[in-house]
């Protein structure tokens, strides 16, 4: 299991477009990918769960990946979040 703490930098947080793009990107990995936020654990492969978590700009989150390709999943998740989903 690998994890990393990150800050959400895009101005709207996980709204529909970035949540969809993020869930689709994580779905290609066999590893479990979760986001820990506000005492919740959210399945990062579910668009609806990501939106329902209400992860907004400036939120401190923790990405947790566990499985065969966990390093690659964490690297892509980190890149997407740190880049602001291309919305900055």
UniProtKB/TrEMBL annotation:
UniProt key word Cytoplasm: yes
Example GO biological process: phosphoenolpyruvate-dependent sugar phosphotransferase system
Keywords: Cytoplasm, Phosphotransferase system
Superkingdom of the organism of origin: Bacteria
A GO term from the CC aspect: cytoplasm
Subcellular location: Cytoplasm
PROSITE patterns: PTS_HPR_DOM (PS51350)
Endoplasmic reticulum recorded as keyword: no
Ranges of residues in domain HPr: 1-88
PANTHER family, sorted: PHOSPHOCARRIER PROTEIN HPR, PHOSPHOCARRIER PROTEIN NPR
Protein name: HPr family phosphocarrier protein
Organism of provenance: Zhenpiania hominis
UniProt lineage: Bacteria, Bacillati, Bacillota, Clostridia, Peptostreptococcales
